[in-house]
Amino acid sequence: MKRSIIISGGAGFIGSHVVRLFVNKYPDYRIVNLDKLTYAGNLANLKDIEDRPNYRFVKGDICDFESVLSLMREESVDGIIHLAAESHVDRSIKDPFTFARTNVLGTLSLLQAARLYWEGLPERYSGKLFYHISTDEVYGALEMTCPEGMEAPFTSGASSGSHHLAYGSEFFTEDRKYSPHSPYSASKASSDHFVRAFHDTYGMPVVVTNCSNNYGPYQFPEKLIPLFINNIVHRRSLPVYGRGENVRDWLYVEDHARAIDTIFHSGKVAETYNIGGFNEWKNIDVIRLLIRAVDRQLGRAEGADDDLVTFVTDRAGHDLRYAIDSRKLRSELGWEPSLQFEEGIERTVRWYLDNAAWMENVTSGDYLKYYEDMYKGR
Ligand code: NAD
Ligand code: DAU
Asked: Measured from the CB, is residue 36 less than 6 Å from ligand 1?
């Protein structure tokens, strides 16, 4: 095998798209998916590639340092793409310890195992890479200086021709100071610092990317888009935090996976790349788009489900606006999003409607209790 790569968190939403892309595109790579299978991990996300000869699934916890180290030795690993994490902001507000354990200590455990293994080899760090997947949330929140939206100062091929608004004049660039507000983003910021410290202290070849909000197939229905699609289908209320004015920059998950592929192979060691959709939307506008798409695809009358929108108590510490400047990735490595947002939403809604069994499966068991606890009294 040309490369042997551990992809941590490969049974989750983004991880499963990365695993699928690498397994299909690189038959001469060994792809080892290391995942604990928490509530968010699901092997059904990878049914189509599970029997491939270049793929192996290992159920394991990234915090289990000894097991991680022996897996790296057993598989002669030369690359790590680290996605495993607790990823939902609302859960982090209720249970910050779990986020510190997985996101901070888990990342440190992977780093330390990679260091011990690679430093013991004759060629040491040559040909190795630790690629850490992070989030734009570490940068904090941007001002909304233009609530009605203005023409976005930079767009991509995919966003031009559609809604391409910016809600403020500032954007997250790679050199922006970290300012996390939620326990989730604080834990991701901490893990980013550990990754960079391993480069500066031990010379480990690392790369870090900070991406904006992803959407698409296989996303667990605790996040806005799949949760609301499912609620519209079942005509349940849509709990919009605050007034729905918060702005997120949405990127189709397969475009993120493509960016990861590009950066894994061509990114510069010790660099940071921001990944975004050039695609800012207010939550309430995304929600209106979702209602229209679901109703149209189900053959319901236009506007039939508009009254499901319910404004509820805001999320604590709710970041107002995220907007990524990903021009560095575009100019240095040639990556751009491929999919225009309305088309991505249509495709995503179609996928969830066509995969009702997947949705039923992940919303059975403990899910109902989660939903009641999360939204009780809001
Ligand atoms: P997810 O919650 O869907 O999946 C996380 C995966 O990690 C699951 O398969 C879970 O089982 C696994 N996992 C959790 N704890 C583990 C542990 N201790 N050991 C091994 N595996 C464990 O998350 P996602 O949305 O796919 O996000 C993946 C990564 O991308 C995360 O690091 C997240 O911070 C980052 N990210 C996500 C987004 C987004 O919009 N979803 C945007 C930017 C960055
Ligand atoms: O920006 C990248 C981040 O995007 C990732 O790092 C996180 O892992 C990912 O979860 C996501 O974080 P957000 O908090 O932005 O995503 P979420 O889908 O939870 O919420 C999107 C917006 O919708 C946010 O402004 C909160 C709002 N919202 C969310 C839910 C679940 C609601 O109004 N109601 C809801 O029920």
From this structure: yes
Q: What type of residue sits at position 65?
A: F
Question: Any idea which ligand is nearest the CA of 58?
Answer: 1
SS3 of 116-135: the string is: HHHHCCCCCCCCCEEEEEEE
Q: Is 352 a catalytic residue?
A: no
Query: Among positive and negative, which fits the CA dihedral 217, 78, 269, 196?
Result: positive
Q: Cα 288 from chain centroid?
A: 23
Model pTM? 0.98
pLDDT in tens, 209-253: 999 999 999 999 999 999 999 999 999 999 999 999 999 999 999
Which ligand is located closest to the Cα atom of residue 39?
A: 1
Q: Which residues line ligand 2 (CB under 6 A)?
A: 87-89, 135-137, 212-213, 223-224, 227, 239-241, 246, 248, 283, 315, 322
Structure tokens belonging to residue 1 = 């095998």
Residue type, 320: L
The residue type found at 119 is E
